[in-house]
Design goal:
The protein is α/β, with parallel strands linked by helices. It has a single domain (3-61, 116-352), classed as TIM Barrel (Alpha-Beta Barrel), CATH 3.20.20. It is 43% helix and 12% strand. It is built from 14 helices and ten strands. It has helices spanning 3-12, 31-41, 47-50, 111-115, 129-140, 154-161, 163-172, 174-198, 219-240, 258-264, 279-286, 301-304, 307-321, 341-352, and strands at residues 55-58, 82-83, 89-91, 99-102, 144-150, 202-206, 245-249, 268-270, 291-296, 327-331. The strands form two sheets. The protein has a seven-stranded parallel beta sheet with strand order 1-5-6-7-8-9-10. A hairpin with a 5-residue loop joins strand 2 (82-83) and strand 3 (89-91). The longest helix has 25 residues, at 174-198. The chain is globular and about 55 Å long.
Length: 356
């Protein structure tokens, strides 16, 4: 059975394949752990090739745009700031996650300024020529392919506007909030159409709309600004390829938003974070409507368990979330240096030998 056949059998048909498919989240480690990976393995291959995970992922090719984002700030930016193509500026920290300190729409006070912003060309056709070639190559090798569209609306919106400011906009400046979210939506609709045309099997969306304690926003706010727009994006993908698989990532306590995800067309839920969700309850309620992807805690078992305990957790999680198929096993988030290398190897070995 090829990895792609395994993915389709378990996630779409919800039948038992030969073994539970697996990966590590985003197919990589944080930078410091990547350094350990290269030192430990001596390999020049990226982890998904070296460990032979069941999926591969693709992202748009590089942009040709050359933009100066410093114009959007009223103070000089620090010398060590790095801007992404949305204009979000980050500075390095002592930790693995940079400080996203510069929000290019923070000073915008009306819809016109937002509409005239230098939005990225993530939806430009030239950025998907190489993607189509990569998809074909991965398919020829027997792998399922994910098109990556994390931080789909909400997270990119608050990174561009500032978290507190966007949350205030939802209540006090609705037109600005709508204009930001709609601008992102139009880009994402065009982007998902480009991905669908390349032949990717899965579109991986993601927005952390909950915390580990519960919802970040009122349901009415989510419905008004995010939910219906996500439904339009998903419909655009399905209009081109009805068989494309819709994956949604949301860290945190998701029980109260799963019905909303199903309503907009989500077919795979990720990561079902074990530290704040009852995985058995979610499986019992939703296994006939959703498949699951993830399940292994990066705040609990992976950093603090022993290799023996991790092997047991792999089997336990498989029995809870995928006793009859419908599961791709993975860590709940990207792996970082708090996780001992021997624990990572224990997870990968146990997952690879996790036969039905």
């Amino acid at each position: 059975m090829t990895p792609r056949e395994r993915i389709f059998k378990t996630l779409i048909k919800k039948q038992k394949p030969d073994r539970v498919p697996f990966e590590i989240s985003w197919g990589a480690f944080t930078p410091r752990l990547m350094k350990t990976y290269y030192e430990k393995t001596g390999s020049a291959l990226i982890p998904d090739e070296y460990f032979d995970f069941d999926t591969r992922f693709v992202i748009p090719g590089g942009t040709k745009l050359k933009l100066d984002y410093t114009q959007y700030f009223d103070v000089p930016v620090e010398q060590n700031v790095t801007f992404d193509e949305w204009g979000i500026g980050a500075i390095p920290t002592r930790y693995e996650i940079p400080d996203y300190k510069y929000h290019p729409l923070a000073l915008s006070d009306n819809e016109k300024q937002i509409e005239e912003y230098n939005w990225p060309d993530l939806d430009a056709a030239y950025r998907y020529t190489s993607v189509e070639q990569k998809v074909k190559s991965y398919h020829d090798r027997g792998y399922a392919v994910n098109g990556e569209m994390y931080q789909t609306i909400f997270e990119t919106a608050w990174l561009m506007r500032g978290f507190e400011q966007l949350m205030m906009d939802f209540y006090t400046n609705e037109e600005v909030a709508h204009t930001i979210c709609e601008s992102l939506t139009q880009i994402r609709i065009n982007q998902v159409c480009q991905f669908a045309k390349t032949g990717v099997d899965i579109i991986r969306f993601g927005d952390d709309i909950v915390s580990q304690q519960g919802q970040l926003m009122d349901k009415d706010i989510y419905n008004k600004f995010i939910k219906l727009r996500m439904k339009r994006i998903i419909k655009a993908a399905k209009d081109i390829n009805p068989d494309i698989i819709i994956f949604m990532h949301s860290c945190g306590k998701v029980e109260n938003v799963i019905d909303d995800f199903i309503d907009i067309g989500v077919e795979i839920l990720n990561p079902i974070q074990p530290e704040c969700n009852n995985q058995q309850s979610i499986y019992n309620k939703y296994h006939d409507k959703l498949s699951f992807w993830g399940g292994i805690g990066v705040q609990s078992i992976l950093p603090y368990g022993t290799p023996k305990e991790i092997r047991a957790k792999v089997k336990e999680t498989s029995n809870v979330l995928g006793p009859n198929g419908g599961l791709l096993l993975a860590p709940a988030h990207i792996l970082d240096p708090t996780i001992p290398w021997e624990n990572i190897l224990a997870f990968i070995d146990a997952a690879r030998n996790n036969f039905y």
